[in-house]
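It is time I had a proper look at our fold encoding. Can you supply me with one protein entry, sequence and fold together? It will help me judge whether the discrete encoding reads sensibly. Leave the record below and I will have a look:
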Amino acid sequence: MQTQISKTNSSASAVAIKFLSAVQQRDRETVISLFHPDVQWSQPGNNRLSGPKNSVTEVMQMGTDMATIAEQTLVLSHFDILAENDKSVVCLLHWVADTPAGKKLDVDNIDIYEVVDGQIVRSLVFTADQAQEDEFWA
């Protein structure tokens, strides 16, 4: 598993890199520490995981639900920091899952993270293939 990371000195980018690396390593404690307690998360689509999440607890529950639905096969295969603007950073993520039950996910996402005082306070998620995600997470 190879991670592509653009070189940058931004604190927002540094937080995003640390966060996404922790997601890849399934380091739950680090992930939680990088979220503001009242993080606002917007998950796209028309499936049981879609919609706004309004706290670290809700975001972490969504992550647990994703792992369960994906039968523990969900992997952030790689990511890249595309751009930053002050407290916001735009990231390209690639997710894959291939469950024993035959469900497959192979999709790019664009995530925008807003970082304040070293924590993610807001995330806006876009997917390159909403139909695939809706089917997978249904």
Summary: Residues 1-9 have pLDDT under 50 and may be disordered. Residues 11-25 form the longest helix (15 residues).
